[in-house]
Amino acid sequence: MNRHPFNGIRPSLTLLLSLLALSMLVGGAPPNPDYGIAIKQDWISMPDGVRLAVDLYMPAENGADRRFPVILEYLPYRKTESRARNTALYSYFVNRGYVLARVDIRGTGNSEGRLIPYEYSDIELSDGDTVIDWLSRQGWSNGNVGMFGISWGGFNAIQMASRNPPALKAVIAVDATEDLYQDDVHYMDGIMHLDSWEMSQDLDNARPGAPDYVIDEDYFHNRFDTEPWMMTYKKQQRDGAFWDRASVRDRYQSIKIPTFHIGGWFDGYRDSLPRMLENVQAPVKALIGPWSHAFPHDPYPKPGMEWRYEAVRWFDQWLKGIDTGIMDEPAFAVYVRNWHKPGPYLASVPGRWRWEEGWPISRVNPVIMYPLANHQLKRSRGGQTKHSLRYIPSIGMEAGGPVMWWGDVAHDQRGTDAYSLVYDSEPVSEDTEILGLPRALLKVAADAPRANWFVRLSDVSPDGTVTQVAGAGFNGTHRNSARDPEDILAGEKIALDIELHFTSWVFPEGHQIRLSISNAQWPMFWPTPYLMTSQLFLGGEDGSHLILPVVPKGDVSEPDFHKPAENPGLEGFENLDTGNASGYGEISSVDRNPQTGEVTITATNTGATRYPWGVESYLETIEHRTSDANPERTAMVGSHRLEVTLGKRILLWEGELEFSSDAENFFYRYTRKVSENGKLLRQKTWRETIARDFQ
Fold first, then answer.
1. Which pTM does this prediction carry?
2. What CATH architecture does domain 19-192+237-330 belong to?
């Protein structure tokens, strides 16, 4: 999810930029010399009378009397404050003959109505049908609408594609998934996940639209007093109808229009790309590069590429009826990652681009490797034995921080490996590439009714440095079904088929392949509540083993992507403090008491932005707490502050969360406050006890 809305300009301002300036800034396909750019505001009325606010980024000047296809980005992330971001992003398309529409979802930003009850609700998607129809019928529209977006915008682009509104002709989804239970942030891999996004989004939902920030009874009813989304998600701990409502994972055939999927190796939503390529029957393409949760023209890490050049070709093909040749190219462009040192930060990822015809890749050679009694990892089976592992609830910080979602750049894995079962291969005799989703087929047991397993694949360099290549978690109570979990019986030997998350990697000659297995990865995943020991069974015909998708060497073709273009700036805003690189709370301290086994991790984030109407700043502090002696007593305690200074008017929104557990329940307490010039206007607290449902 996008962490924080980007910056903007005064909502009444019309922006006209000359072609001469833009042609120097926005490379790729040549801009049309007749087009300037104008930002216009409008309202889109829903059937129930609620109006959604839309900013239209339009070709202006000599292009004003022409009809253009429309590209929609549909988000709750406050279009008015995002105008600087949107101008930089959209101008590339506008100058190539498109209208860009940025719509605030019902009850968010500047749109009217009561806040939607949760992400991707039927209300939001039904409103989307109306929005697309409205855009297709305007005098400046040629009747063809496309969608694109990153994160939330990519999610609902996929979901709207499955609804097939008549005017929607093609979509591009960046860093998004079609599986809301296993892949989204709330229950990644079927295990409770909790981070700063859920808390900060609940507070941001409670704000009225900028720049007026009208606070009246209508505002309190429709926004401030609405139930926090997080309460809803934490009650839905198993897969089922709640997650099915907007997931396309079991109904790919519902997508009838062309879809283009863009992901990053350091983004947690990347698994959707091979699934979409394999299962969608309509025209489909995909591209994956070395970046994290970011647009590829402005990436972290580098190198990036000008994805908008490819997007214009895509939309020209389907919205303008121009044969751009994009469908004559292979369906999948892959950035093959070469070895690099672990994080936490990485400026650039070594590697190269390569075309693939689609998915699955027929030439991939599955290589089976077996963990052995002597902790080696070999291609031959060993004798039967078992290894035991004591559950240490507080391990896993190196493998996945509080917001990594199996993305971002992981730390050196040695700290977590020290408390894991670890199996190393001999040094590889030649460079060895993998591409795909490695699988760990494990035979395991545990002496407690709840247990999770975490599998990590790593590269061990000759100097001992350990770089994470792929990983996945598995909720042991979901071994037969994530919809109908079952207790683990003490001593029961159970089979787990764990598909690791999508990866690309080249193990250099002389490096080792490492398989690591543990029962905790905190604070990324909530610990199971019981102290225990687990077993891993090795050897024999059905012993534990690893399957690697090895790519043989051979001649391949390479795409020639454009380098990222510079983007036009915008007066009236300034980033005073950009906060953490990830946009989320990052670990700032770790306090481990070796006597009591209690561990506290503190994560912080701060930032500030100047808008034409004032200054907005935020401060976030989160503590993750657990205990190796009493893992049932785990907690996340956080505070989030958003302050807006409008001359002599100072508005402050505060959110305070306490989310904790014992062996049987989760305990939720959230307080929301709004103050003006130091005077408390409203305070509301929600409390709920939620039964642990096989978590």
1. 0.94
2. 3-Layer(aba) Sandwich (3.40)
